[in-house]
Specification:
Helix content: 40-55%
Number of helices: 16
Number of strands: 17
Strand content: 15-25%
Shape: elongated
Structural class: alpha+beta
Radius of gyration: 30 Å
Oligomer: single chain
Distance between the termini: 76 Å
């Protein structure tokens, strides 16, 4: 009997606010352990929470971008459970009346774009972070850092709409791009800014009823999600073949050893004893607030990618790469206006991204060094074949490190591009005289030999010859014709 996987994701997005969800403590990453805490986020008696407007704004932006229905009046609730990194022994979250419901995230897949439907997006607070087990003398201990406790989270819950792990990875990649695009979160999974739980079950192909699900908790990389879900599908398949019954449980995935372990039997909603948070009023998002947030939304990444393809004649792949970051997309458009879009895309995707990665620069850092008008001038010279390929890469590096336009940089470095017949014809004839074998091969019909001869001329010119001019001269000499003047 053929089985199919049914997968749903619960994504926890850490919101990039200055302060925590219900208090004024800094929400920064990397502070000394237990230094960003106060009576509110530690749950001390008498401390009263106040909701963070910036975090609610972030939820509203995300919900509108994904086409969710925004509830005018939502309710905060207490989710009660004990764990050492939960200082209050309950989490302030939303339950039966979340802020955002429905909606879908468009995801680019190999077979085309597909919208994955959502159940809800709600606002909540994060827990602390446990470090265990650790060795202290002859004892194994655990430590808890409460700095993260109370940091704002958006929990995005999908429908069980995924059928294979690759779809999950593509969804998370698209979600990370969107939260960065909207300025909601850095989306860096290794820092805990984006975390994911995956619910996995198997059922006979074609059946509508869901099988018994298991939940894999705290997957902290996109690759980890893909591998963890793959491992759980394989485990459930093997269990079914062995006649075992699948038990509802919460699992942990060890990415280092590609291994799953049962953490606890799966809880149900009633186990958490949800009830409305008595210290917080209902959260009201009135029509004027929604309209203001909708008007402030930027052009969304999937819409912009389609426009880049249409207006700048770049392939879908280029549009996806350029659209990974909004600032990168902005820079591309500023450079490509009135220029060759594909040429601009090639240089930005390869050389700009390579250099920023190597030097640890952001796109904004790069744009300050090489404003769009400087890169446009460079691209125009490359497009006109005024600068040969090897020299173009050198000029590109000078653009990043020095001031001045292309002509000024060439002059400063005493480089004279050789593009005239008088400059290049002596070099061409010298190469032909020194390479009788390749010349005979070319005249015998081996056209590919021309590339070798062009390379030899380029080498003699120290990379300063224009390749197209060299090629034209070689063809004329080899054909016994007088080269163009």
């Amino acid at each position: 009997m053929a089985l199919e996987a049914v997968i749903g994701l619960e994504c926890h997005i850490q919101v990039a606010t200055r302060t925590k969800m219900f208090c004024g403590c800094p929400a920064e990453f990397g502070a000394a352990p237990n230094s960003n805490v106060c009576p509110v986020c530690l749950g001390l008696p008498g401390a009263l929470p106040v909701a963070n407007r910036a975090a609610v704004d972030a939820a509203l932006r995300l919900g509108l971008a994904l086409g969710c229905e925004i509830r005018e009046e939502s309710v905060f609730a207490r989710k009660n459970y004990f764990y050492p990194d939960m200082p209050k022994n309950y989490q302030i979250t939303q339950y039966d009346r979340p802020m955002c419901e429905g909606g879908a995230l468009p995801v680019a897949l190999a077979a085309g774009s597909r919208g994955f439907p959502l159940i809800r997006i709600h606002v909540e607070e994060d827990t602390g972070k446990s470090f265990h087990p650790e060795r202290h003398g002859d004892r194994r201990i655990s430590r808890v850092d409460f700095n993260r406790a109370g940091v704002p989270l958006l929990e995005l819950v999908t429908q069980p709409a995924f059928r294979d792990p690759a779809e999950c990875a593509a969804f998370l990649t698209a979600l990370r791009r969107l939260v960065r695009w909207l300025g909601i979160s850095d989306g860096e999974m290794e820092k805990g800014h984006l975390r994911c739980d995956a619910n996995v079950s198997l059922r006979p192909a074609g059946q509508s009823e869901l099988g018994t699900k298991t939940e894999i908790k705290n997957l902290n990389s996109i690759r980890g999600v893909e591998r963890g879900v793959t491992a759980e599908i394989a485990r459930q398949n093997l269990a079914r073949l062995s006649g075992e019954r699948i038990e509802q449980a919460t699992l942990l995935y060890d990415a280092d050893h590609d291994r799953l372990a049962v953490m606890r039997s799966k809880e149900h909603a009633h186990d958490y004893r949800y009830f409305p948070e008595p210290d917080l009023p209902r959260l009201r998002v009135e029509a004027a607030w929604r309209d203001e947030a909708r008007a402030a939304l930027p052009e969304l990444p999937w819409t912009r990618a389609a426009r880049l393809e249409r207006e700048y004649a770049v392939p879908a792949y280029d549009a996806q790469v350029l659209g990974e970051r909004r600032e990168l997309c902005d820079y591309f458009e500023d450079c490509a206006r009135g220029a060759d879009g594909k040429l601009a895309s090639n240089w930005i995707m390869t050389e700009v991204l390579r250099m920023t990665n190597e030097r640890g620069w952001s796109i904004d850092d790069w744009a300050r060094r090489v404003p769009p008008d400087r890169l446009r001038e460079f691209l125009a010279r490359v497009s006109a074949r005024d600068i040969p390929g090897p020299l173009a890469k050198q000029v590109f590096t000078w653009l990043a490190d020095e001031e001045g336009g292309v002509a000024e940089l060439l002059d400063r470095h005493r480089v004279r591009v050789q593009a005239s017949r008088d400059d290049l014809l002596p070099l061409v004839r010298e190469v032909l005289n020194q390479n009788p074998g390749p010349v005979a091969q070319y005249r015998g019909g081996k056209i590919a030999t021309l590339g070798f001869l062009v390379g030899q001329v380029m080498k003699k010119s120290a990379g300063q010859a224009v390749p197209q001019v060299v090629q034209d001269l070689l063809k004329a000499e080899l054909g016994g014709q007088r080269p163009p003047s």
